[in-house]
# Entry
Amino acid sequence: MQTIEIIEVKSHDAIHKVVDLADTIWREHYTAIIGKAQVGYMLEKFQSKEAVISQIRSNSSYFLLTLNEQPVGYLSYYPKNETLFLSKIYVLQEYRGKGIGKAGMSFVQAQSEKLGFHSITLTVNKYNTTSIVAYERLGFQKVESVVMDIGEGFVMDDYVMKKQIVN
# Structure
């Protein structure tokens, strides 16, 4: 039997696990979409130990996704205006399709309801077609197209997607 658990990131050991997962997942998934240089830049800017600690101190919540006690992914969210913003949800390639991401999304929806939000919002790279399809299957809709300058000549070319929650 497979046991999926979602564990809040509170310790430095857990933060290191997130950073290690990010390094593996981003390099295997995003290099083909945005290139090696941008992946390296974004890992340092958004997923380094210092960046994760800073995000947690700034009201982001991070969680490890585990399968049979082994970390296989992570997610992060924070309140943004009138919505719960899903900043990150990533699963190692060899564990995709096993219900881990879906369990993570169900958890985020439950957290959204618990916190009194009526929607979940996220951004996704416009060329990350597999993730876009997965989000649409879960009830998310594209609501906006955005291009954000993230420095060093790099941009994030994303769709904003939103899911309404009926509490």
